[in-house]
Amino acid sequence: PQYRLAGAFPGMGKFEYKTSNFGWWRTRLTNLVSVCQQYIGLPAYPGHTPTAWFDTTFGKQNVYHGPLPCGPGASPHTCRMNPQRMYINPFVVQCVPPLSVDPFGGAAVTQFNAAFDHTANGLTMLQAREMVAEIAGVVPEEVLMLQWMPRLTDEITHVTIQINNTGVNANLALNSVAGNSTFGWIDTDVRQMPVPATVPTTAWEWALEPIAGRGPMEGFVTTRPTNHYLPGVPCAARWSTELSKTFCATIF
């Protein structure tokens, strides 16, 4: 079986399940730690407890799966579920810390986050960039593809896009992209974000993103200008052993 979170951002979205070629079914479980760590394979994030809620805007025949035994220590992606049919609302799971929606001061930029099923349209990043440019009325070089993250086992690609053209209404343009059915979006999100260049480097957030099963002191270094953004990894070409020493001495 395959499991994924179908949402505009990695680590959050509708919990889906697939066992054959009949497509993805939306499902729900009560043990969210099991969902995030054993089914999806994400690590435990310090200070964050997984949460979930029902999306009441959508209701049709889905598949409900009662969990079979899958206790602590089970390997990621090894849990099994027993299918039953019933009517439910989609179950939205938040495995990673949520993004801030708090008001902020200073300059803002419109950002588009989304996910699509890459088995359905087979788009490459360059093709998607050209399509976005045509819809937005800009040249492809003005479409900033800040994230293009294919997850092959999940059959899903996450994207983050901004428009680098002050003569275009980016909010209108990116909402038009979100509403375009050609892409086959699974989920979309358009929102205002603080401009990173206006945030002092001393105010950026740094953290260690854990690796499942490796312990609390081993993982990936991540950073972001504010908690309105998803964490990202620093540029590898500019990282060094000395920076690693400084980071570890500061974070622990």
**What are the secondary-structure elements, in order, as H or E?**
EEEHEEEEEHHEEHEEEH
Extended strand count: 13
Classify the secondary structure makeup into a structural class: alpha+beta
- Mean pLDDT over the residues: 84
- Uncertain segments are 58-64
Question: How much of the sequence is in beta strands?
Answer: 25-35%
Distance between the termini: 38 Å
The largest sheet, given as strand count, sense and whether it forms a barrel, is:
5 strands, antiparallel
How many DSSP H or I helices? Answer: 5
Helicity range of the residues?
10-25%
Shape: globular
Rg over CA atoms: 19 Å
Could you characterize the architecture of this molecule?
- The chain is built from 5 helices and 13 strands.
- Strands 1, 2, 3, 4 and 7 form a 5-stranded antiparallel β-sheet that branches. It has a 4-stranded antiparallel β-sheet with strand order 9-10-8-11.
Structure, briefly:
The chain has 252 residues and is α+β, with helices and mostly antiparallel strands.
Describe the secondary-structure layout.
Elements lengths: L1 E5 L5 E7 L6 E2 L5 H8 L11 E4 L5 E8 L13 E8 L2 E4 L13 E9 L1 H4 L3 H12 L6 E9 L4 E8 L6 H9 L6 E10 L10 E6 L8 E6 L16 H11 L1
Antiparallel strand pairs: 1-2, 2-3, 2-7, 4-7, 5-6, 8-10, 8-11, 9-10, 12-13
